[in-house]
Amino acid sequence: MNFGITSDQEAMLGHVRALLDDVCDMAYVAKCDETRTPPREAFDAMARNGWLGLIAPEEYGGAGGSPTDLALLLEETGNHFEELGLWLFRNFTYGCYAVLKHGTDEQKRRIVPGVVKGELSFAFGLTEPDSGSDAAALRTRAVADGSDFVINGRKQFTSGMDIADYVLLALRTSDQGKKQLGISTFIVDTKLPGIEVRKIPTLGQHAIGTTEVTFNDVRVPATALLGQLDKGWAICEDTLRYERLCLSAARIGAARRAFELALDYAKTRTQFGKPIGSFQVTQHKFADMKVMLDTSQTMIRRYAWLMENGKAERADTAVIKYYIAESYKTISDVCLQIFGGYGYCMEYPMQRFFRDSRLATIGGGTSEIQKNIIAATLGL
Ligand SMILES: Cc1cc2nc3c(=O)[nH]c(=O)nc-3n(C[C@H](O)[C@H](O)[C@H](O)COP(=O)(O)OP(=O)(O)OC[C@H]3O[C@@H](n4cnc5c(N)ncnc54)[C@H](O)[C@@H]3O)c2cc1C
Questions:
Q1: I need a labelling partner for 380 at 20 to 30 A (CA). Which of 33, 83, 208, 326 fits?
Q2: Nearest alpha carbon, ligand 1 atom 24
Q3: The CATH number of the domain where 204 resides is what?
């Protein structure tokens, strides 16, 4: 297995890094976070430069890139601004990957070119107030009415819904005993009558964040159905595998930025007449973090390779989601400690990494659930 980066991929990383250094520097990120404003200018710049089409085939205006290409792009984006990476990931995962793999020709033609150009954005509504980790227990319903469906219920934590044009929804369409049966996926226009969106105040992820969405008699045409009726759970599981590649890649990038900032600080901050980085206790913290970062990068490259070769199993996804999320959380916490009192101040960037990283072990499936999935494969 070759986990190395090709010269084309190195060139891609160079372009993306230079672009983001220009349009998404630390001051811009701090402003988006403080003013709770989505990084629209940086998103548009990524679109103008063609990066939103990375994984779409050329016939839809894209570049036909691989999961490894995508992981590299999202790592570099997350290194500049995790929330920009998460915005892109939602479009790649739900607007490109899910539609291209499970959609009709009409859906592909209607949606993918707009996502590639950055004209359409996506959100994902799986979680509900009473079904989080037990996601298949969802109850929001779509009932057939003539050739339409009518949606009623509530979704919880639908991130980016307020800036999305479409939301990929997992909905109950029949009761068949086993909860995974009778779920269907729909691509729904977020501006339809009967949809109410409420922003949920959260600890971190302030630029885009998350929402609660209520559906009151929302009427959608049959063309909104993605895949076959009642067979949507398999689409959710498949999409979640792709989501976890993207989320993990963006989080490695963010963890690397926290590490880089703390490393600079440890070299320049002097106490007791020496840089704090000269104390062995500080050096060991950096050694531990370097091991976590290198391991995370190796794991994501291996996982992308498994995806490219159709070999990624459910447990492989859980392994990367669990390890990379926990590493990011730990690295952000340790880096805040290295900044001392300044780490705790809102005027310095480290508090944002600490707040944003806290979601990593919860969103996209908690660490406990990932460990359940891994353990279930061990024949205990
Ligand atoms: C900011 C944010 C953004 C999000 N974005 C989205 C989104 O865009 N789309 C979407 O659909 N969802 C989204 N989520 C939802 C997220 O995936 C869920 O919060 C997560 O899956 C956990 O569900 P829950 O919050 O209901 O917690 P619960 O499922 O109620 O879990 C509570 C605690 O119990 C533990 N637990 C539960 N069951 C078990 C078990 N069997 N074994 C061991 N421990 C267990 C959990 O690990 C957790 O610690 C988001 C959440 C947040 C906070």
A1: 326
A2: 132
A3: 2.40.110.10
pTM: 0.97
Picking from 58, 86, 120, the residue at the C-terminal end of a domain is: 120
157 lines ligand 1 (CB under 6 A): yes
Of 93, 127, 197, the one to substitute when testing ligand 1's pocket (max ligand atoms within 8 A of C-beta) is 127
362 Cα to the center of ligand 1, angstroms: 6
Strand partners, 128: 131
User: With contact defined as beta carbons under 8 Å apart, do 269 and 275 qualify?
Assistant: yes
| CA angle 368–311–138, rounded 5-degree value | 40
Residue 261 shares a structural domain with residue 322: yes
What would the two tokens of residue 288 be?
């531990």
267-313 pLDDT, tens per residue? 999 999 999 999 999 999 999 999 999 999 999 999 999 999 999 99
CA–centroid distance, 366 to ligand 1, in Å, is 6
Closest ligand 1 atom, CA of 160? 8
What CATH number is associated with residue 290?
A: 1.20.140.10
